[in-house]
Fold this protein.
Amino acid sequence: MCQKLNGRSDKFIMKNKIVLLWVLSVFVLTLSSCSNDLEDNIKLLKKVVETSEEGISETTLFNYNGNEIVSIDGAQKRTDFIYTDGLIKKTVLLNKKNQLQETIEYSYLKGKLSEVQSLGNYRIRYIHNSDETVSYERFTIVSTNQQVKEFHGTLYFENENLIKDDRILDNANAGVISNYSVSYDYDVEKNPLFQVTGFRELLNQSEKISLNNTVISTVIKSVSEDDQISSSAIIYKSFYTYDLENYPKERVSETAIFANGNTGYLKTQYFY
């Protein structure tokens, strides 16, 4: 009788082991499926086509190695990105018109950007504050031993979006206080550049590092001299349409800022 009971017990244990292995297999497959779904939901920007009011179009191509960006190649310039341990450590900008190159190096402290240096041109130092703001100073490199401060300011963040950049110009004339401020309003949809490895750490890329897409930018300039204050405000608006996964498909702005400083109509189309 004891032998029969032991036999039944062994069969019961074996059956439970098989069931347990089956449950574990299903669990592992489910995790793998979820992981793949998450990866599939990340869309990387592959191409941007910008069209002016006159119908002139320019195409910019984005190249990647996994989620790391390799290059941004446009009609007038190309930017190559070099990574170290998941952080962008260097960019090389090529001006296609005159074939001049500019190398920009990025330094980090505990994974956060601490300095940007354009070799021979300028330098920006960043300090990350306890209230999640970031203070910064920008210097023009005059010579190997001389740097002149251009301006200093503070970056403000909310919900992983850069919402405001306040700065004071340090190269204004004596007795003159010159302020510059730009604030950003966002939609609630996905900025595709936010998914690019290391890109969100590049504080010198302004609102491009934000989680969402800019719909309104407000620029305020003020100058104070001899107790007289003059100020001006300019509002730039953009209107988006989105794809089924809530990524921008098209952006239209009547007040886009062009490379030459002029403003005007611009339609931007996004391809993934």
Observations:
- Residues 1-9, 11-21, 23-39 have pLDDT under 50 and may be disordered.
- Residues 1-41 form one domain.
- The chain has two domains: 1-41, 42-271.
- Residues 2-41 form the longest helix (40 residues).
